[in-house]
Design a protein that fits this description.
Blueprint: E1 20-25, H1 40-55, E2 59-64, H2 72-79, H3 83-107, E3 112-116, E4 125-126, H4 129-137, E5 141-145, H5 155-166, E6 170-175, E7 181-182, E8 194-195, E9 197-198, H6 200-205, H7 213-221, E10 225-230, H8 235-240, E11 247-249
Parallel strand pairs: 1-2, 1-6, 2-5, 3-4, 3-5, 6-10, 9-11
Antiparallel strand pairs: 7-8, 10-11
Helix pairs in contact: 1-3, 2-3, 5-7
Length: 256
């Protein structure tokens, strides 16, 4: 993150233009400068900003990845583990992050519910669409854990699916250390070009590493816009206020 955690959410922004959003956070966003795991200060900084957004009347759902603990696809490829087994382990990693984020949000005064696509009734509610929507309507932040509950699907696809199920106005993708979408990896390609606007089809055809193809196709078919930006001071609030921060991926008239 380019900002110190304690300064997150301090930026002054205008009135929200979105009623309901789905925020996709990578697991790496929670680990800060650590090699793995969760950095409590970074996580609390994220929670502070999200609590501020929620206080403005915006309904917030969150899908968080598990890459700071475990990546099912990578482990399966590297070790020969059965892919389905590796993916289930990855889903459980997302639950660890969801619980940590819930705790941080509630310390900021934001009522929060974790809903899991896998049954873990001691620590999270089962995912039920109507119950999730009711939580949002009551002003609670809802964290969707365990992906879709199925192997061979990423948390990107889970984010697209939950956003559509909840009737979200947009997907917000907060990236760790990059300001949006580039035509190459900015960490390895020195002249990678920043792309402020794209259609879903352009992102798919050009093979840009925004979301996986399944997730992009879902968003394209349903004309759901995706806002990709750096997880830095006040950026979530700025995007929700309608500022063009990072890259906007949109098709047609919804969100674009």
């Amino acid at each position: 993150m380019s900002a110190e955690p304690e300064t997150l959410g301090s930026a002054t922004t205008g009135a929200p233009v979105f009623r309901r959003v789905l925020l996709k956070l990578s697991g790496e966003a929670l680990m800060g400068a650590r090699d793995y795991g969760i950095d409590p200060e970074v996580t609390q900084g994220i929670a502070k900003e999200l609590a501020g957004v929620r206080s403005e009347g915006v309904e917030v759902g969150i899908v968080v990845g598990g890459g700071n603990f475990y990546r099912g696809m990578a482990v399966a490829a590297d070790s020969g583990m059965d892919r389905a087994t590796a993916d289930y382990a990855g889903m459980l990693a997302t639950l660890l992050n969801a619980l940590a984020l819930q705790d941080a949000l509630e310390r900021e005064g934001a009522d929060t519910r974790v809903m899991s696509a896998l049954t873990v009734s001691e620590v999270a509610e089962p995912y039920i669409r109507r119950r999730a929507m009711r939580h949002l309507e009551k002003g609670r932040v809802v964290i969707f854990a365990a992906g879709t509950g199925n192997p061979f699907f990423t948390t990107d696809t889970a984010a697209a699916l939950r956003a559509l199920e909840m009737g979200a106005d947009a997907i917000l993708m907060a990236k760790h250390g990059v300001k949006g979408v580039y035509d190459g990896d900015p960490h390895t390609v020195s002249d990678a070009e920043f792309l402020p606007r794209l259609t879903h089809l352009q992102a798919i055809e050009r093979g840009l590493k925004v979301m996986d193809t399944t997730a992009l196709s879902l968003c394209m078919d349903n004309r759901l816009s995706i806002h990709v930006f750096e997880l830095a001071e006040g950026n979530v609030a700025r995007v929700i206020a309608g500022e063009e921060v990072g890259t906007i991926i949109a098709t047609g008239d919804k969100g674009g």
